UniProtKB/TrEMBL annotation:
InterPro entries per the UniProt record, alphabetical: CHASE2 (IPR007890), CHAT_dom (IPR024983)
One family name in Pfam for this protein: CHAT
Residue numbers spanned by region Disordered: 772-791
Biased composition (Basic and acidic residues): 782-791
SMART domains (alphabetical): CHASE2 (SM01080)
Listed name of the protein: CHASE2 domain-containing protein
Transmembrane feature ranges: 698-721, 733-755
Domain of life: Bacteria
Keyword Membrane: yes
UniProt KW keywords: Membrane, Transmembrane, Transmembrane helix
């Protein structure tokens, strides 16, 4: 699988920033998805990079055998002449740190976060970077942490304007990669090694031009067709940029413009400039719509140029993709010379985003690789017995039908009911001692003066509640109450602004709530989580929404759920910081909360919005018994033992029937046994904290292929039962087998595993009936008679 990312910085520079940054991501051959953001000014990064270039220039100016043009030998009196290797290494590290601090800006973070939720660590990722300022593209962008987190990602640069060239179809009767190798002025460098590396390439037709004249080089470009143009020698990007093709001539790309354009039309796919400072030359080649160019961004030592060329061509000629070949060859340059790890910054791809990078086999003109069809010699056939054939066909048919029904979602409702039944059969657990719920019932609401009350609690009552709780020293106070209006009492403002108070808001929803609800204005953004729940198609809560990408025009822009935020605050105090994995999954401490796939267990038709998790309810007679309850009046009247609240999470929420905040759960869907929202929040908080502190399991499912294997095992078992027994014995055997499958599913659920029980039982029953109906009737038993002897 391959993913392509085009990151367009647009207009801007280090001093003014980049006001419009666009990221487009292509995956699974689908149209691209797009994210937008911006980057602030960061002139210090440009200053650090200029200093790095000065030190780099000072290092190579004292060394021999560097692939640099004659103009590069000019001495700049402002540049340092005595360079400390430690200073150079420190500056390399500083550049990485500065770049990633800049990319962590709040205006760019949404792009980074959303990319990490879509990119795959296993996929080959082509990251194409473009900007209007060439100086920005010259920076070593592979220092971005994204390339460390995704080992199969590689960078390329591109011009902001690009298009595809109409190419002439050229036949390749010999199946060779046609390479025009130009060995330019070799004064002070070793191009013989380049010649030797090229001569060892498999399936290659290499034409060598040693220090050619302009006319000879143009003749080859005009008259012949080439796949790869290779240059080794001196070059530079200063001024127009030029190639020193011989001791007396230095050619610009403009001098070769029409010949190169003709070569591109005839099939030239790749240029490899194994010389110095080639980015300016690469831009000129990109203007001619050359699909790919590989260059060195700075002057380069002979040893690095040879090592990269050898490593790249070795991988590329073996069939590896161009990008992964460049990355592997580039990473092997780490620490080879006095440049240290900076040597791996030098090679870079300049890519036309409108073109696809070719493989070596495609350059050679081969069709897509297919395994050969071998003719086997005639062998004696050992046919399967009819019984085995029937078993195989029955298993295949039953498995295919049930897996297909499950895939389309036909079985989802029945599977969820079976899952709920197993949830209710688990052994009882105790309530979570870290939580306390303060309930607001109908009498508490009616006891307040209606004129003073704008929500469930009047300001005076809320202030009294928070003041009373503060005296009991809870660790966190969670307000499961909507308050989208400011408090009028300064004392209440101060109470709400305490760092251990967490409130909530409601995100916009195109179906249920088009407006959303704002958070309490007294709370900072780090104290507000969204209240949104996700119901399944039958209206039951079985999932927890951990995070989501907020709608920027919604009044609620918190990326974390109310329960998630409270759990994070609680665990922060024990040193467990939240992070996100390369796959975009939330991690707290050592526990990773993997997001749900589109098809998870029995959920085959699921809304994938946000980062979701199956909710592992604490096994209790009712979800409302998750934590001790304290009535509001009981709290305000001082009828509470302080030890019940001290150092705990206190949730304040409405349990009055008039609130309408009641939810169906696996423990009850009817009106009288639905669960108040504040207890649902408590269940979700408890799940996260218990997973981190108590190693309580999360709900997990088997991979799709393993679930199909379970269905197939049920079909095999049913066919074997029907072939072995009849009548009452068959029924007993079937019940015992079905019970064994059910017991296995129940035991697995005790450790968090959701096995495909219902599909397996269906395949067991279907294959039993089908096999029994196809089996031939048994002949009647014959009586055994004693032999008769004639007298």
């Amino acid at each position: 699988m391959e993913q392509r990312l085009l990151l367009n910085l647009g207009q801007g520079d280090w001093q003014s920033g980049f006001a419009s940054v666009t990221a487009q991501l292509w995956e699974h051959e689908q149209p691209p998805i797009q994210f937008v953001g911006s980057l602030p000014p960061w002139p210090h990064l440009a200053t650090q990079y200029e200093r790095w270039q000065q030190l780099y220039g000072a290092i190579y100016s004292t060394q021999s055998r560097w692939r640099r043009a004659a103009a590069d030998f000019e001495f700049d009196p402002t540049e340092p002449t005595n360079v400390s290797q430690q200073e150079f290494a420190t500056l390399c590290t500083t550049l990485r740190t500065e770049l990633n601090q800049w990319l962590a800006a709040a205006t760019f973070a949404p792009i980074d976060r959303r990319l990490r939720t879509r990119l795959s660590a296993q996929a080959a990722i082509r990251v194409m970077l473009t900007a209007h300022a060439p100086s920005v593209l010259r920076f070593p962008w592979r220092l971005w942490h994204l390339f460390d987190d995704y080992p199969n990602a590689e960078l390329s640069l591109s011009l902001p304007d690009y298009s595809r060239t109409l190419k002439q179809v050229q036949a390749k009767p010999n199946g060779k990669v046609r390479i025009l190798a130009v060995l330019g002025n070799d004064a002070g460098i070793d191009v013989a090694t380049d010649r030797q590396i090229l001569s060892q390439l498999p399936e290659a037709q290499v034409t060598l031009l040693a220090q050619p004249t302009l006319s000879k080089l143009q003749h080859q470009l005009w008259e012949s067709s080439w796949d790869i143009l290779f240059f080794a020698g001196h070059s530079t990007s200063r001024g127009q940029g030029y190639l020193q093709v011989n001791a007396t001539e230095a050619l610009t790309i403009d001098q070769l413009k029409y010949a190169l354009r003709r070569a591109v039309q005839k099939g030239l796919q790749l240029a490899i400039l194994n010389s110095c400072d080639g980015l300016g030359l690469a831009w000129a080649l990109a203007d001619l719509h050359l699909p790919q160019t590989i260059v060195m961004r700075e002057p380069v030592p002979d040893a690095i140029a040879h090592q990269f060329l050898k490593g790249f061509l070795a991988q590329f000629s073996r069939g590896q993709p161009l990008y992964s070949s460049v990355r592997e060859a580039r990473e092997k340059l780490h620490g080879l010379t006095e440049l240290g790890n900076c040597a791996a910054w030098l090679p870079v791809i300049v890519q036309n985003p409108a073109e696809e990078p070719p493989t070596w086999q495609q350059l050679a003109g081969y069709p897509p690789l297919c395994p050969p069809v071998l003719q086997s010699p005639p062998q004696r056939r050992h046919g399967l017995t009819p019984a085995v054939r029937r078993l195989g066909l029955t298993t295949l048919a039953i498995t295919a039908v049930i897996a297909g029904l499950r895939w389309t979602g036909v079985l989802q409702s029945a599977e969820l009911s079976a899952y709920d039944a197993l949830m209710r059969l688990r052994p009882l657990e105790t309530a979570d001692p870290r939580l306390v719920v303060v309930t607001i019932d109908e009498s508490d609401i009616q006891a307040q003066t209606e004129g003073d009350r704008r929500g469930s609690l009047a300001d005076a009552t809320l202030l009294q509640t928070l003041t009373t709780l503060a005296g009991y020293e809870p660790r966190i106070i969670g307000l499961d109450l909507y308050r989208d209006f400011p408090a009028s009492d300064p004392a209440l403002v101060a109470a709400l602004s305490q760092p251990n108070v967490v409130g909530l808001c409601k995100s916009r929803d195109a179906i249920a709530d088009r407006m959303g609800i704002s958070p309490p204005p007294e709370l900072s953004s780090t104290q507000v989580g969204f209240s949104d729940f996700i119901e399944d198609t039958d209206g039951t809560l079985r999932r927890q929404l951990l995070t989501l990408t907020p709608d920027p025009v919604s009044p609620c822009t918190s990326p974390y759920g109310f329960a998630t935020l409270i759990a994070i605050h609680y665990l922060n105090e024990t040193g467990r910081q939240p992070t996100f994995t390369a796959q975009g999954d939330l991690q707290i401490g050592a526990v990773v909360f993997p997001r749900l796939e589109r098809r998870t267990g029995g959920l085959q038709r699921m809304d994938q919005g946000g980062n979701q998790l199956l909710l592992n309810y604490r096994s209790l007679p009712s979800p409302q018994q998750i934590a001790p309850r304290i009535g509001l009046q009981q709290l305000l009247n001082g009828q509470v033992n302080p030890d019940r609240i001290r150092d705990r999470i206190v949730l304040i929420g409405v349990t009055a029937a008039s609130s309408g905040d009641f939810w169906s759960t696996p423990y009850g869907t009817r009106a009288h046994n639905r669960t108040a929202g504040v207890f649902m929040q408590a269940q979700m908080i408890s799940q996260l904290i218990s997973a981190v502190e108590d190693d309580r399991p999360l709900i997990w499912v088997l991979p799709q292929w393993a679930e199909v294997v379970c269905i197939a095992l049920g079909a095999i078992a049913g066919s074997l039962l029907a072939g072995r027994w009849r009548s009452a014995r068959l029924m007993l055997a079937w019940l015992l087998t079905a019970s064994a499958f059910t017991l296995s599913a129940w035991v697995a659920l005790l450790s968090g595993g959701w096995l495909p029980l219902l599909p397996t039982l269906l395949s067991l029953g279907s294959s039993t009936l089908l096999t029994a109906s196809q089996a031939p009737s048994q002949p009647p038993e014959r009586s055994i008679k004693s032999p008769h002897f004639a007298e």
